[in-house]
Every structure is written in C-alpha cells, then in structure tokens.
Amino acid sequence: MRRGPRRRHPQARPGHRRASHAPRARARVARWKARAPVPQRLEGLQRLAVLVLRLLLGFVFVMHGSQKLLGAGGIAGFAGILAKSGIEPHVPLAWVVAITEFVGGICIFFGFLTRFWAAGLVIDMAVALLKVHLVNGFFISKNGFELVFTLGVLALAVVLMGPGAPSVDRATGIEKGAG
Question: Is the peptide bond preceding residue 89 cis, with omega within 30 degrees of 0?
Fold first, then answer.
C-alpha cells in the first residue's frame, strides 16, 4: 500500500505522456535481424514456402486431372490404361482418380479442405507408384516412379504442414494457427 501523494517521473509534465520507445525498439530488432544468421533471417519466408508448395501442387494436379477427364482418350482412355495395369474395377477407379486429382487440385490451390484432398492425393500417388510405376524403375523416361513419388511426398508435406495462412481453410476457421 502506498502512503502519501503519488510520485511522478521527474521529467513528466502534467498533461503530457512519456515518449514511446517503440520506434527505437523496432529499429534495434531490425538491426539484430540483419546481423542474424541466414536461417533466422529466412524464418519469415516459411509462410511463403507453404503457399508456393500448395499453389504448385494444386496446379499440377488440376492439369493431370483435366488430362484424365478431357484429354485424348478421356475417362475411357484412362480406364483402359488402368485395365492394362491390372487395376480393377478400372472404370469407377478411373473416375475416382480423375475427380480426386482435378477437384483436389482446385481445392488445394485455393486452400479449401486442404489436408483432406492432399491425403487423397497421397493415397492416389501411392497406388500409382505401387501398382503401375514401381516395376519400371525410378526414371520417368521409362515410365518410372520419380514423378508420382515426388508428387506423393509433396502432397504428404501439405498434409503435415496444412494450407498456410492465405487460404480458405484459415479464412473460414477450418484450420487454426498463424502459419
């Protein structure tokens, strides 16, 4: 408990507030960040990296899904490829794969139900790797698994990291968090 009159700062004048030290503090932090090691300076770019990954993955799957839906042979052509690979029932699965890649790519691009669609694409790529591409080796020139493996790992990264800040999921509250 205080006793006696309230003491003021010796330089404070009645009716005036003390000057804020915030600008100097911000300048000090900026100088510290400029001298910080590279990993600390790049921390702010993590959000951008998640966004770039999500946009790239979404775009690639929209293109692959549209090729299966609207490309040279359409669904019938893709179903024929599945039948040759021994994947049955080939027609319904052709529709599932094409829609998962096309709609999932759009949703991932905009960040809507991102983890759900990315998980679907991980499964899609795992099946493609195991049932079609693995026997052909690694390199894509011989229909190997390098592309489906890479896309599957990128989709898994999106499942683990989430959509990032600029996304429909964050705007609607489906995903919480800062990054």
Answer: yes
Are 79 and 89 spatial neighbours (Cβ–Cβ below 8 Å)? Answer: no
The three-point CA angle 136-138-140 to 5° equals 80
Q: Which residue has the tokens 């898994």?
A: 156
Which pLDDT value is given to residue 176? 84
Structural domain count, the chain: 1
Tokens 């910080």 correspond to what residue? 36
Q: Where are the alpha helices (DSSP H) in the chain?
A: 22-35, 38-41, 46-70, 74-84, 90-110, 114-128, 146-161, 168-172
- What residues make up the domain containing 96? 48-169
Examine residue 177 and state whether it is found in any structural domain, yes or no: no
The answer to the question of residue 28 being in a domain is no
Of 136, 161, 160, 162, nearest to 149 (Cα)?
136
Burial of 6 (0-12, 13-18, 19+ CB in 10 A): exposed
Higher pLDDT, 72 or 134: 134
Average pLDDT taken over every residue of the chain = 87
| Spatial distance between the Cα atoms of 138 and 43, rounded to a whole number of angstroms | 34
